[in-house]
User: Fold MBL fold metallo-hydrolase from Muiribacterium halophilum.
Amino acid sequence: MEKIALTHLVLGELDTNCYIISDLEKRNCIVIDPGAEGEKVLHELEIKDLKLEAIINTHGHMDHIGGNEFLLKETGCKLYIHEDDKDMLQDPAKNLSVYSGNDVISPPATDILEDKQILEFGNIRLKIIHTPGHSPGSVSILLDKRLFSGDTLFKK
Ligand SMILES: [Zn+2]
Assistant:
């Protein structure tokens, strides 16, 4: 695991936690929840010389998907979300952005997440756990012993 690095960014007005998981040997990475400010995420990837393989959205709320469009357009990466939240990506009423006065519309998912799925990107190995509640398609992502839970667990 020592070649795997973790970067934490706090993005947007709602202070969304965004994580970059990178493989320092292969120089590739994935991004969890680019909630806003896609430019800031891309800048981080550029200064670290990392190729973005995929975005994983823990769920479909606007403050977790706002950077999808910019990053997909700039990098051509994949976009993963659970089946039960995939319609939220392109529906401002479902992703709640309609209430913010600034509609968020993400590109559609390229790949669908499933419970107990293992995803591998180079040396980055992730396990997907479906944890519905906050939204029907909320997932948690397990990296070694670290769990990324989106909004399933709120830190007060
Ligand atoms: Zn949420």
